[in-house]
Amino acid sequence: MGSGTFSARSLAAYCCTTGAMYDHATGRVSNQTFKSVQIDPSLDPKRFTIRECVNSDEHPKTVPVILALDVTGSMGPACRETAAALGIIITNLYKKFKDIEFCVMGIGDLAYDDAPIQMSQFESDVRIAEALDKIYIEGGGGGNAFESYTAAWYMGLKRTKLDAIEKDERKGVIITMGDEPLNPYLPVRQLNESIGASEQSDIDTKWLYQQVIEKFDVYHISVDDPNDCYQYRKKDIDDSFGQLLGENYKISTINGLAETIEECITDSVEKNFAIPCTGILNEDNSDPTYNENGEIVW
What we know:
Layout lengths: L7 H11 L2 E2 L6 E2 L20 E3 L9 E8 L5 H19 L5 E8 L9 E3 L7 H8 L16 H8 L1 E3 H4 L5 E7 L6 E2 L1 H8 L7 E2 H8 L3 E8 L10 H12 L3 E4 L4 H16 L16 E2 L5 E2 L1
Parallel strand pairs: 3-7, 4-5, 4-8, 8-11, 11-12
Antiparallel strand pairs: 1-2, 5-6, 9-10, 13-14
Helix pairs in contact: 2-9, 4-7
């Protein structure tokens, strides 16, 4: 999957079909609504075995990015801001890295929610926006003081096939966003029920992290907003993610989300593309130039 190229024109045309409005001056989308009242079949992990990010003539050096949104009660505004700024995020990234392919996920609470894991295919064109619009913002969560953020790590590890790592020995990117502490484990019964797996025990977070970082650079963004839980549990949240992720743990306001997402992806791609490749373009979409040390000259 992942054919095609994202463009402002295609996003504007798509918005016309949904009743949303695309602002060509700012690149933002407004008036969009998340209409799903249950998990969309195309995002249901019980209905697919694998999500693929494959190289092609069009995208020869794919950069697989999983963007996982917390869809529990307090995180609706962050989901909507991500949708509103999606065009800006992708347009800015494509000026530098033309082969990025996005998979969008909705993450809830495995212990309490009906649809705690939602996952799209990897796409590189307006189908990214289409998949994001299908996300079911369940608005759930529970009383266990965390959400199942590491379900995105598990799905990335177990349910993806990536040419980036299998053919090019480069990692993908996983970015989760939320306002609760890092969950200590994934409960096995609910995990198996949600995705049709056959795990034999709870999935420990520290163990899972050591496995997934062989395949992905992992980031988490805590969303600091008056309407969510971050300020109430700031120390617990910062400690839980910071101790494990180090500098890959970020904090952002709602308004700063687009920039923070771009920073995470840029940081990972620039590390993984230390050797010049065709996956990087100048702002005018021409091939980059390199100095005598093999470094990109912008």
